[in-house]
Design a protein that fits this description.
Keywords: Signal. Residues 29-50 are annotated as: Disordered. With 180 residues, the protein is an alpha+beta fold. The protein has two domains: 1-41; 51-168, Immunoglobulin-like, CATH 2.60.40. It is built from one helix and ten strands, in the order H-E-E-E-E-E-E-E-E-E-E. The protein has one helix at residues 7-35; strands at residues 51-59, 66-75, 81-87, 91-102, 105-111, 114-116, 121-124, 130-136, 144-151, 155-164. Strand 1 (51-59) and strand 2 form a beta hairpin. The longest helix is centred in the N-terminal third of the chain and has 29 residues, at 7-35. The protein is globular and about 45 Å long.
Amino acid sequence: MPGSRPAAAGRAPVVAAALLALGALAGCGSADSAEQPGSETSAATSPGPDIAVEGAAVRVPATPDVTAGYLVIDNTGGAADTLTGVRTDAAAEVQIHDTREEDGVMMMERRREVAVPAGETVELRSGGTHLMLMEPDGFEAGDTVELTLVFETSGEISVEAAVEDPMGGSTGMDGHRGHG
């Protein structure tokens, strides 16, 4: 019929208005949920641990049976995590040790795990908590060793550790050849 419109053309303005309204409502809902504390989209902190490992280094073995390793674990997340183990193909075993003084004598004690609190940094260092690589391969200064850290929540994180010789002056460490 001349002068009449198809039925679909009359509905187009109504459909367009409905789509605009839905878009406006969806935008409002997203902004509101992002600002609510505890929301999964909150940008303040991650709800779980957020682990980064830096500064990994191991010493040139002074003896064939053991050497030490050091690193820094940073947890910027909103929950604690726990380092439960470390392994490498470059040694028979990796243990976590604490150095402590008892009756004026420095002693090392094996630890099974290291807590990494939310929002904190834990340093494995000479004279404190550190790694002991048992029966290490014959690596030299300038080599790298892959360490795989195992966390209770975050799982496995692999890092490359630089092999350093404290007697060569490359680390600035205290000269405890081969151990913590």
